[in-house]
Amino acid sequence: MKISKYNATDYLKTDEDIKEYLNASFETGDSKLIARSLGDVAKIKGLSKIARATKLDRSSLYTSLTEQGDPKLSTVTKLIEIFGLSFSINTKVD
What we know:
The chain is built from five helices and no strands. With about 90 residues, it is mostly helical.
């Protein structure tokens, strides 16, 4: 039996899928997961296109959007805007 590596991008087919994926990532509060999730969506949307739109170097953007990366808040806000999304702050539910 062949087991393939899980790749979230295989399941993100619609804008709604992407929105829910990013919401779930942000809800965890895990900065590494958030960075990786933003990177997954950037790959789906086209990393080179996203790099041009954010005026960031493609390789720097790629590196910052991994579990080892730590994107600046300005990068995160640019990405969210380019993805056609916006932030919303809610009261934490325990």
